[in-house]
Every structure is written in structure tokens, then in C-alpha cells.
Design goal:
The structure holds two protein chains of two kinds. Chain A is of the alpha+beta class. Chain A is 44% helix and 19% strand. Chain A has helices at residues 2-18, 24-38, 87-118, 155-163, 168-174, and strands spanning 47-48, 53-57, 61-69, 127-134, 148-154, 176-179. In chain A, helix 2 (24-38) runs antiparallel to helix 3 and helix 3 crosses helix 4. The N and C termini of chain A lie far apart (59 Å). The chains are: A alpha+beta, B mainly alpha.
Chain lengths: 180, 204
């Protein structure tokens, strides 16, 4: 009988370990928060190319990915009716994108802090990460514009920063950033 | 030059001069010496003569100029060229020189700037007009063929360049179109997903 009970307890512990610590509901809530932030009203809005997608990686943390164009190309998009883009349009377009890239980085830091408060099941020592995949057309000027921006930080540091109402300089100090 | 005027009242000026230059005979010399001892004027005159002689001897000896000539000599006669130059023909000669120089300069200028390309056609004295015409026709035909060939090459190069440019533009347009479709597809997928999510939410 003792043997049977031991096997039963061991099986329960195994299933408990296999089950995600972070609930799907909390990840979806964080995804919505990110989408709302990306789609927030602006005079020069981003062009989202998909909703944010969150995944929990056991032992690492939660990773959110999102694909977007920094600016809506709109009328600048080449087409059979507009086969060329002038140099002035390209330069202005590039200038807008560089400016929006800085804004996106600030927004990503803020979203990481907010997500840390939503992901309740995530252990404090695991990380909250976010990767923005930046779309660009082949005819664009891509100088100083990365294709991907990745940010991550330990959840506990983000929670502490949120409690302290940390500003961008403090967030920059605790969040690891990579561009490629 | 020694003065011949005598200040002596004795009338022996000439003899006194000869005495001063040691040209008197010995007897007259002695007589003159006795006279000089008694006559103060003559002694004074002798002193002046000797002083003048001594002053002249202090001057350096100089050669007599060799090229002394008179105006009437032939040396001073003008040369034929100078006679011509000083004559009335000088103005005419100068005018002729200026005119000749102008002609030479204008001829050089015309030959240098307005020379037409020349084609030298060598013919023999034995060539008939028909042969000449045939040769000219052949040359003209060769030139026309060469021009036509050059034109064809230029046109072909221009056409190829235009085709390359058109192909590049076409490729760029196709790439841009594909990118636009890609963006459109992603945007529509996102919208469909949201729509589906909202319908599911409404159903629940």
C-alpha cells in the first residue's frame, strides 16, 4: 500500500512540474497590453503586422514577439501606379523611422515593466523578454535601423522598478538590450 | 704754351727764353748771366719762365690722339644705307614692311583656323573618268556602310541599355509588389485573428 501511495504522489509531483507555472490567461493579458500600447493613438502610428505573441520558456521566462513597421508607409509604397520614390521621400521616411525607433525602445521598456506585474505566476528570478521584429521594404534606407530589437530583464528587477516608478534612465540600466 | 710776351724792359726777351732753355751759345750765355746779375726785371722774368717750365714738366706725358680727323674727311661721309634711310623713301619702306607683315599674319591665321579637311585623291594620268567615278562611288559606299554600321552599334547599345533599365525597374516593381502583398497578408491575418477572437468572445 505504501508503495502504491508513493507512486501516486510521485506521479502528481511529475505532472505538477510539467505544468506551466505561468497561466495562459496572464500571458494573453500581457499580449493585449502590448497590442494596446502598439496600437495606441498617435499622429505617426506604428504599422502592426500581427498581434503580440507570448511564450513561456521553462527555466527562462516569458518571451513576447511582435512584428511591426515603425511607420505606415502608406502612399509611399511603390506600386504600378507609383513606380518610384523620390530621394527626398526616402530621406524623410528614414528620418521618421529613426525617430520612431527611439520611441519604440522607450515603449518596450515600459511594456516589460507592465508585463512583469501581469505575469503573476512567473518566478522572480526568471526573465521577461520582448523582441520587436521591424519590417522594412527593400527600397528603404536602412542605415541605423536594426531588423530586430530584443530586451529582457529579470522579473524581480522589473517589479522593483515599477514599485519605484523608475524612469527611462533607470530602466535602461536594468534592462538588457540587443539589436541586430 | 710759353708766352712770347716780354715783361722785360731790356728787349732781351728772346735771348732770355733761349737762355732759360739752354739754347744760347757759351759766349752769349756768359753775357746773359752778367746781365741777369745786374738787371732785376730780366732776373724776375727768368724766374717766371723757370717756374712755368717746372709746372709743365709735372704734367704726365700723353699720347697724341690717333683718330683725329676733319669733318671734311671721307670718314664722315654717310653710308649708302644711311643716305637711303634719311631720304624720303624711308616712310614708304616702313609702310611696305608693315603691309607685308600684316599679309603674312592674316595668311597664317586663315590657314590655321579655317582650313577645310582635304581629301587627297591620287589619280594617274591614265585613269579614265569612268574609273574615277567608280572609285569615288566605291569610296562613298564604304563610308556609308561604315556610318550605317556605327549607327547600328549605337542604336543596339541604346536599346540594350533601355532594356536593362526597364528590366531593373520591372524587377523593383515586382519586389515592391510582393512586399506589399506580404504586408497586406500579415495585416489581414491580424485583422481576421482579431475578428475571430471577438466573435469567439461574443459567442461565449
Amino acid at each position: 500500500m505504501k508503495i502504491v501511495m508513493s507512486l501516486f504522489i510521485a506521479a502528481i509531483l511529475c505532472f505538477a512540474a510539467a505544468e506551466s507555472r505561468v497561466s495562459r490567461a496572464s500571458i494573453v493579458a500581457a499580449e493585449h497590453m502590448i497590442d494596446e500600447k502598439i496600437n495606441a493613438y498617435s499622429t505617426d502610428p506604428y504599422h502592426p503586422l500581427g498581434d503580440a505573441r507570448g511564450t513561456y520558456l521553462e527555466g527562462y521566462g516569458v518571451l513576447f514577439t511582435n512584428e511591426l513597421d515603425l511607420v505606415n508607409t502608406g502612399a509611399l509604397t511603390m506600386s504600378p501606379f507609383k513606380p518610384t520614390v523620390s530621394k527626398e521621400e526616402l530621406a524623410g521616411f528614414h528620418e521618421r523611422k529613426v525617430k520612431k525607433l527611439a520611441e519604440l525602445k522607450d515603449a518596450m521598456r515600459t511594456m516589460l515593466v507592465n508585463a512583469s506585474g501581469i505575469l503573476e505566476g512567473l518566478p522572480p528570478n526568471e526573465r521577461v523578454a520582448m523582441e520587436a521584429i521591424l519590417y522594412s521594404h527593400s527600397w528603404e534606407i536602412t542605415r541605423d535601423l536594426p531588423h530586430r530589437v530584443f530586451m529582457s530583464a529579470e522579473k524581480q528587477k522589473l517589479v522593483n522598478a515599477k514599485a519605484a516608478h523608475a524612469g527611462q534612465p533607470e530602466l535602461t540600466a536594468i534592462i538588457e538590450e540587443q539589436e541586430r | 704754351m710759353l708766352s712770347t710776351d716780354s715783361h722785360s724792359s731790356c728787349g732781351r726777351a728772346e735771348a732770355l727764353r733761349d737762355y732759360a732753355f739752354d739754347e744760347l751759345p757759351a759766349e752769349e750765355r756768359r753775357a746773359m748771366e752778367q746781365h741777369l746779375a745786374a738787371c732785376g726785371d730780366c732776373a724776375l722774368e727768368l724766374d717766371q719762365l723757370r717756374l712755368t717750365t717746372a709746372a709743365l714738366r709735372t704734367l704726365p706725358d700723353r699720347e697724341i690722339p690717333q683718330r683725329i680727323a676733319f669733318v671734311s674727311d671721307r670718314v664722315f661721309e654717310p653710308s649708302p644705307f644711311r643716305r637711303f634711310w634719311n631720304s624720303g623713301a624711308r616712310l614708304g619702306f616702313a609702310s611696305a614692311c608693315v603691309l607685308a607683315l600684316a599679309l603674312v599674319v592674316s595668311a597664317w591665321h586663315l590657314s590655321g583656323h579655317y582650313a577645310e579637311p582635304r581629301t587627297v585623291v591620287q589619280t594617274t594620268a591614265s585613269a579614265s573618268p569612268d574609273q574615277i567615278n567608280a572609285a569615288v562611288s566605291k569610296a562613298v559606299a564604304q563610308v556609308r556602310a561604315q556610318i550605317a554600321e556605327n549607327d547600328a552599334q549605337v542604336i543596339q547599345a541604346a536599346v540594350q541599355a533601355a532594356e536593362r533599365k526597364r528590366d531593373a525597374e520591372y524587377r523593383n516593381q515586382m519586389v515592391a509588389l510582393e512586399e506589399n502583398f506580404d504586408v497586406l497578408r500579415k495585416t489581414m491575418n491580424r485583422d481576421y485573428a482579431r475578428l475571430e477572437g471577438s466573435e469567439l468572445g461574443a459567442g461565449q
